[in-house]
Each structure stands twice: as C-alpha cells, then as structure tokens.
Design brief:
Blueprint: H1 6-18, E1 25-31, E2 34-40, H2 42-48, H3 50-55, E3 62-64, E4 67-72, H4 77-89, H5 99-111, H6 115-128, H7 130-135, H8 137-144, H9 151-163, H10 166-169, H11 179-186, H12 195-209, H13 227-237, H14 251-258, H15 267-279, H16 299-310, E5 328-333, H17 334-337, H18 341-347, E6 354-360, E7 366-371, E8 385-388, E9 394-398, E10 408-411, E11 419-422, E12 425-429, E13 433-436, E14 439-442, E15 456-468
Parallel strand pairs: 1-4
Antiparallel strand pairs: 1-2, 3-4, 5-15, 6-7, 6-15, 7-9, 8-11, 9-10, 12-13, 13-14, 14-15
GO cellular component, one term: cytoplasm
InterPro entries: BACK, BTB/POZ_dom, BTB_POZ_domain_cont_9, SKP1/BTB/POZ_sf, TLDc_dom
Domain BTB: 23-96
Length: 469
Amino acid sequence: MTSIFYSNLSKDFSSILDNADDYNVLIKVGENQNIKEFRAHSVILRARSSYFKGALSSNWITKQNNMIMFNKPNVTPTVFEMILKYIYSGELDLTNQTSEDILGLLIASDELLLEELFTYVQNYLIKNQFSWVRQNFVLVLHTVFRLVSCKKLQDYCFESICEDPLPFITSKSFLSLDKDILFNLLESDNLQIEEVTVWDYLIKWGIEQTSAGLGSSSNSDITNWDNDNYDSLKQILNQFIPLIRFVGISHKDLFNKVYPYKVIIPSHIFKEIEEFYYDGISPSLPLRIRQIESNIINLELINPIIVNWIDKKNPKIPRTGNDPLYKFKLIYRGSRNGINSESFKNKCNGKLASLVLIKIKGSNKIFGGYSSIGFNSLGGIKSELLYYNSSNNFIFSFENNKDIKNMKLGRVKNYSKAIIDYNDHGFNFGWAMCMVNQNLCLNDYGYYEKILPTDEIFNIEEIETFIVT
C-alpha cells in the first residue's frame, strides 16, 4: 500500500519559491509602470508546463551571468504571482482577487498551457463571477472570443445575452462591440428581443463605426445625410443586414424605421419581404425562436403552431412582426412540485391565461390545453361545482414532441363550460380533458371538439403549466 503525503510536499515546494537562493531563471512580467521580476527554477517550470518546457529550451533562452532571462510583458505581476504559486504548490486562492485579474489569469493559464488551472478558472468565472461577467460582456467577449479553448465561457456569454439581450444592446459598451462578435450574436435564432429593436441598435452600432463620423451630433439626423453618408453605413453593415428577420418587424415599424434606410438594404431582401407579405412565400430566415422552459415540448411546436392556435390562425403560417409576441413563464412542473390535483390547484390558481402540457407515461404522446381565463382554482380541494366562460379555450394533442402532421385541435363549443372547477380535479376543460391526480381523463360531453375517437384514461409522466403573456 502506497502512502501519500501531498500536504507537506506542497508546503516544501512553496518554501522553495518564497526563499530560493539557487534559482536560475529571472522572469520579468508586466509593462509600463507595472513591472515586477520573479525568481524561479527552470526544472520546476519545465516539469509543470509544456509551454516552459519549450520556451526554456537551449534554442530559445537568453542568458546573462548564467541566469536565464525571460520576459512576459503581456502578463501582469498579480496574475503571474498566482501562476507561480500554482506551479510550485498546487494552490490557488481567488477570494480577494479582482474579476479583471481572474480573467487575466484565465488567458495567461491558456497561453502557458496550464490546462488544469485554465479549466478551474474558466468554471470559476461562470459559477462565482457570473454577476461581473454579465455586467462586462463586451470586455469578456473581446478577451476570449478568438480563443478556441474558451468556448465554454463564450457560450455562457452568448446564451446569457440571448436570454435577456436588452440591457446588453442598450449599454454604451455595445457600440464598441467587435464586428465578429456582433455577427455571431445576430446569427442566433434564440435572441429574445423584438426584431425592430435589433434593427434600431444595429443602425446605431453601424453609425458609430463609420469613419465619416455619422454619429456626431451634427450628422445624427439622417435628413442631413448625403450619398457618402449612406455609402459608408452600407459598407459597414453589409454583412449584418441579411441576418435581420425583417418579417418579424411590423408594417408600421418597417415604414417608420426600416424604409428610411432602404438604400443600404440589398434589393433581394426587400423583394423577399414583399413576397412574404403579399404572396405568403416563407422567408429564407425564420423568426427568432421565443424560448419556453419545457421538458415536454419542442419550441417548433410552440412557435408557430400553438401561438397560431391562440390567435386562431392557420398553425403552419409563419409569424410576422404584425403578430403578437408571446412569453411563457413556467409556474408548475409535476416532477418538481408533485403530480397531484392539490399541487396543481395551489400553483395554478387565478384568472391568468395559461398553457398546460402533459407527457403520457409509457408513450411519446403529448396532450395539452390553453385557457384564456386560467383554471380559476382558489387552491385546495372544493366540493362545489363551478363553471367559467371562455370562447378562446382549446385542447390539443401531438403524437410526439416533433410531430407537426398528426396534431389534433379541439376548440371549446360550449363557452359557458369552458373551464370547470370540481372536487379533486387539478384542471377540467369542460370534462373533455381533466386532471385527476396522476391521471389524465379524456371524455366527450360535447363541450369541446373531439381530439380522440373514444374516451381514454392515461397516466401522467410529466405535467407543466405556463402563464402566457
């Protein structure tokens, strides 16, 4: 049996760093007024870092008085001190370090091929410094965007921006955003923001970039622009304009905010807009996807199918900027809150428009229902029978979470019995679809259009409810 004594080993190596008198490397780091010289041992540096193994080879080193001289002006003294501490002792304490220095440590550890340290610092920034990262997206992305190894942090930044992009694109730092980063962002289908806002801030960003100084106060009014002004802006925005989902912009905003810049927009894009609005031809780029936090259903079934059902439109017609935008806020999930009628009633009471989704146990089949008046439960189990009126409610089914061919829709027929509040039912769509604890019951009382040929009872595997706004 082998005994391990890493603790003392770490302390002893740490003392070598602090009190070395046999060092053979002098490393000068930093630049301008922030320069510091560190003493180190080539044998330890080479053993711990493949970067130093190559950099300190006889073909690359510079010596003075038998001392290896090494310069790293792109690493700050604070960051390099942490790196040496890690190399010698395997210890790292980021508690009192600034977020800027931690970001610098990430970049330096990547350059010095300290993979273990790099992985730890990247995860630390995401898990422990997320507030700072979100407040400094431009700085972070400009620092890590072109580093392949930093993909995890890049993805975190882009996903976070897409979830809530408005604070980012309305910030002053957005106007200094690198063009390749902006391209990556606009390319995303998941940018959760109105398309006209994307257009507005793309124009502002483009004006800021032009060498003609279009962003100056004297030239901010486009009624004063000449052809050179427009040509400059067109050249800057040429690669970005095809990424705008113009069919997601309303007619009013197209006229007021897009048409004034018609001369910078390629003619084939305007032709596509006209073909969509007048001939119903689908655009080359779909609308950006409105996210829904569901473990049951795919986004493609929400948008456009279910949202078109809500608007009483053909489910397969693409949405446009003239259509309402919907958000779906998760308020109940059976696997988290309990699959039973009482839990449903407690979480889903009130008169807020709501969508319920049900995954059937032992099957791929999905059922659901939309109620424009919610489920009207006051919570708990009641004995009285209460009826609620709605002309907009409907129930539906999909064969699976990718099915767009065999879906069934059943709209309410008896508006006065659109929602029923009864005994131990979690929800009750006019008896047509009811939740009774872990069971989903489908019946035909004539109050809704049928979605199944016969009455059925299913076991619920998962159930989710969303407030729809």
